Sequence to fold (248 residues):
Amino acid sequence: AKCRAETSACFSQISDSSYDEMVLLQLNWVTVRQEVQGIETNHTSHAVQAAQAVLPGRLLNKKHVILPLLVFLFYSCFYGFLFCLLMYLLAVFTRYTATVGKDKFHWHFEDYLLYRFAYFIVWTYGAKTMLLTCTGCILLFFGSIFYCASTGASLPDATYNVFNMLIDPSAARDQPTRAGRGVGAMVSVTGLFFFALLLTLTQDAFNSYFQWFQTGKSPVVEANHTVIVGFTENTTKILEELCLCYAP
Fold:
């Protein structure tokens, strides 16, 4: 409103003014316009600052709600996995003591456990994926426990930091304390072994699939074709007859 009033006053005075006065009026118009723009800019900057002060707080509150929830779900699933693993080991030990562990066989429990592990990896579908998942969860769990005990950090922060150290070995050097760097060094080394295991099992899975496909064990997804079983001296003539029959 102030800008419009000054503009109308300027244009009403131009007809009765000299050239010098017109230049002064133009300068006054520019000054008024700059003042109005400065006021708008100040209001805009205050609004932006207020939004910047409110939004991070809301995002931080969401982060404080989501992160502990994810950590709680992870550790709940992990405790359930540990319980199932202990029950399975108990069942294996019971079977060992009932049959293989008798004196006449002379087998140790370690040998039987390794045999059952190899049997599980070779003959169970998806065993390698389960092995990788369980290994990663175990490393993350014990790494977080050691990090909490060494640095006194909260469990969500410890889980996040240990996860970063597992996937990025250089993240350990960013730790502010010596205890954090020490735990980070151990976690980084175990992370390297974990990713070596990941690459090995992934390559083995691809090789097994291609070998399974090359040996003819995969289903033949074809239609409108002729299958000739066996190759004799008459097979060539049969192929010629088939080519003449189906020739366009």
Notes: Residues 14-20 have pLDDT under 50 and may be disordered. The two ends are 86 Å apart (CA to CA). The chain is about 80% helix and 0% strand.
